[in-house]
Amino acid sequence: MIVIAGAILGALFGAFLAKRRNGKGLDMLQYAAGYAILFMIVGLFITIFVHRAAV
């Protein structure tokens, strides 16, 4: 669940950042994809840490 939330938040943040930097549609798509992947990886590590700490 954290991974999915990270992907959504990353995509929104990336698109917002590209739009703020006066990017066009493809720029916003690329930033959204990049930040979604980054936030998904962070969410994955958080999920692994939480599951290992709970045992």
Jot down its keywords.
rod-shaped, 55 residues, mainly alpha, Apolipoprotein acyltransferase, transmembrane helix, membrane, transmembrane
Net shape? rod-shaped
What class do helices, strands and sheet pairing give? Answer: mainly alpha
Distance between the termini: 19 Å
Mean pLDDT: 96
Number of domains: 1
Q: Provide the helix percentage.
A: over 70%
How much strand content do the residues show? under 5%
Q: What is Rg?
A: 13 Å
Number of helices: 2
Give helix and strand order, one letter per element, not per position. HH
Q: What is the count of β-strands?
A: 0
- Sheet with the most strands, sense and barrel status: none
Contiguous low-pLDDT stretches (5 residues minimum) are none
Transmembrane segments: 28-50
Protein name: Apolipoprotein acyltransferase
Keywords: Membrane, Transmembrane, Transmembrane helix
Organism: Thalassovita aquimarina
